[in-house]
Amino acid sequence: MSLIAKAYKIWEWYNDPAAFFEDITGLTPTSGQRRVLEFLPTNENRLLISAASGTGKTKVLAVCALWYCVVRPVFFMRPMNVLILSGSLEQSKVLYDYTSEFIKNSRIVAESIDTRLKTETRFKNGSSIRALSCSERSFYGKHVDLLIIDEAAQKELPESLLDHALSVVAPIRGSKLIMSSTPCLLYTSDAA
Questions:
Q1: Rounded to whole angstroms, what are the CA distances from 41 to 8, 44, 105, 155, 173?
Q2: Whole-model pTM?
Q3: SS3 letters across the chain
Q4: Which has the closest alpha carbon to 115: 125, 103, 124, 106?
Q5: 130 with 119: CB under 8 angstroms?
Q6: pLDDT digits (tens, 9 = 90+) for 95-145
Q7: How far is CA 79 from CA 48, 127, 145, 173, in A?
Q8: Helix axes 3-15, 57-70, angle to 10 degrees
Q9: CA count, 13 A, side-chain hemisphere, 91
């Protein structure tokens, strides 16, 4: 692929993240996924996704993480760091593992990888994606450009996460927090 064709493709992906989704997943985004993707290039900084199981939340979040590390640095002229948190490391890795699958589907994305580890990908442009468990020690003191909290309504997540989430997101233009979860009902019992 020529440099001009690559530059045009990245410009297209920046202006239409749904095209990035299609190119790296081979799928057409649903209307809900498209709304999440349209959030990426905006100046808005918080998004809450609440959707049923099987609607593609995890896939679209993996695409968001890759878009942030491959496409956004070209226009902001600096590396982007993405942190994926969930109730457990295994849950965070489910989302992270989707990025592995999608990297293989695009030559531009594959060529942008520097190193790929079990829970971290480093890009040649200095960007990174890390998947961690949601313990205070793992995320406290970190500052990232995109914080993805998957399955945010789970009881395994520490209450302090929500208190600290905004401080984890770097106080720079373009930084975002995306929280995603399957709706859940809380049952309480008044029985004594």
A1: 17, 9, 22, 31, 11
A2: 0.86
A3: CCHHHHHHHHHHHHHCHHHHHHHHHCCCCCHHHHHHHHHCCCCCCEEEEECCCCCCHHHHHHHHHHHHHHCHHHHHCCCCEEEEEECCHHHHHHHHHHHHHHHCCCHHHHHCEEEECCCEEEECCCCEEEEEECCHHHHCCCCECEEEEECCCCCCCCHHHHHHHHHHECCCCCCEEEEEECCCCCCCCCCC
A4: 124
A5: yes
A6: 999 999 999 999 999 999 999 999 999 999 999 999 987 665 655 556 889
A7: 25, 4, 9, 13
A8: 130
A9: 17
Token code pair at residue 143: 């500052």
Tokens of 67: 């878009």
Report the amino acid identity of residue 53.
Answer: S
Tokens standing for residue 23: 């190119």
